[in-house]
Design brief:
37% of the residues lie in helices and 17% in strands. It has 378 residues and is of the alpha/beta class. The longest helix has 25 residues. The structure holds glutamic acid (GLU).
């Protein structure tokens, strides 16, 4: 943990607002929504465009469905989200509308971020909205998401959104002041550079309407940092909080990204490592494992000993897979250049045999090193 430093105002920020801020105890906090809309409009005037990630759909829908507290059953929560999402959007639409600003609803599932084509599409949509001066308001598409395609929590979604739009800052506004020191004074830690060490300060801190907690916020901060964005956790109920964070004032807990802009190739690898869900596993021999880990080499068909798709239909070109040693240890993640059934046919063979076996060849590698990230170095 280091001293606070000067933080340049970002030109683009993702602001995530938790359920406990927007709809504490399941009631839409209209004044808070109005105030935050004010602060986002002010931020835009001062040169920071904002993508909003708003939780609260489930919380806003509880009352309408007759639930007094958060139900345990997923289908009940999904139904609540279906009721609450339009109420939530109405509140934001009205609040921004009164300030002359249009908003857009963008509902995402993990699949939208996992698949390169949809990812690119989502990126284009968000960029277009921002260019047109509209505030995009993202939430998870809760009423259709099920386990396999669920992002799980909006902290994670907001970090992925920061990567998606290339934001310089992720602000997570929640019902806590920041990360508190465990033991000692219990004071808020101003700046964290070592997230692993910061995890020792996490205690069970879920609110009754919130979904995440400090642990998911630290995960999100870590993902954001790896994608080159600073992250800040601060209390959303404090008036003026967003302006203060954007001006780089010491408020909440800040997780500065490593200095310097990340090259595009690194951002891409971080995206592979953190955003995309693996569709299967490639097991490799010791020689290939060494070449990947020690030399940063591409994965050749020769080194593959088994192909284990997650789904019966196998995986396609461009799918993300985990690369494991025979012992089961995961050493890398990457995007494959061949389909799973093709890899099964060429594994164990030299690259110059690919054409003879398949009748065609795309490239010499099963995973090119530009599409491969060794996970123990992430
Ligand atoms: N998407 C959920 C909602 O809007 C919240 C998920 C979260 O806060 O992490 O209610």
């Amino acid at each position: 943990m280091t001293e606070a430093r000067a933080n340049p105002r970002p030109s683009l920020a993702v602001v995530k607002i938790g359920s406990a801020v927007v709809a504490p105890g399941g009631r839409l906090a209209v004044e808070t929504v109005q105030r935050l809309a004010d602060e986002i409009v002010a931020a835009r005037r001062s040169g920071t465009r904002v993508v909003l990630v708003s939780s609260g759909a489930v919380a806003c829908g509880l009352e309408g469905l007759g639930f007094e507290r958060m139900p345990a059953k997923i289908s009940d929560r999904q139904a609540a989200a279906a009721v609450g999402q339009p109420l939530l959007m109405r509140a934001w639409t009205d609040a921004f509308g009164e300030r002359g600003v249009a908003v857009a609803q963008v509902l995402l599932t993990a699949d939208d971020i996992d698949f390169r084509a949809r990812f690119v599409n989502a990126h284009r949509t968000l960029t277009t909205l921002l260019e047109r001066g509209v505030v995009p308001i993202i939430n998870e598409n809760d009423s259709v998401s099920f386990d396999e395609i669920k992002l799980g929590d909006n902290d994670r979604l907001s970090a992925l959104a920061a990567g998606l739009v290339g934001a310089g800052l992720l602000v997570m506004l929640s019902s806590v002041d920041g990360l508190h020191e465990q033991g000692g004074s219990g004071a808020v830690i101003g700046e964290v550079s070592d997230i692993a060490a910061a995890r020792t300060h996490v205690s069970g801190d879920r609110t009754s309407t919130g979904v995440g907690g400090m642990a998911t916020k630290l995960d999100a901060a870590e993902t954001a940092r790896l994608m080159g964005a600073d992250a800040v956790i601060a209390r959303g109920e404090q008036p003026g909080v967003l302006g203060r964070v954007l001006r780089g004032e010491a408020v909440g807990t800040r997780f500065p990204a490593p200095a310097g802009d990340l090259p595009a190739s690194t951002r891409r690898k971080q995206w592979i490592a953190h955003s995309i869900r693996p569709r299967g596993v490639l097991v490799v021999d010791d020689g290939a494992a060494r070449a990947l880990c020690e030399k940063g080499a591409s994965l050749l068909p020769k080194g593959v000993v088994a192909v284990e798709p997650n789904e019966a239909g196998g995986f396609g070109i461009g799918a993300a897979v985990e690369v494991r040693r025979r012992s089961g240890e995961t050493i890398a993640k990457g995007l494959v250049a061949y389909r799973s059934d093709e890899i099964e046919r060429i594994m164990g063979r030299r690259s110059d045999e690919i054409e003879r076996v398949l009748g065609y060849t795309y490239c010499d590698d099963v995973i090119h090193r530009d599409d491969l990230i060794v996970t123990d170095r992430v």
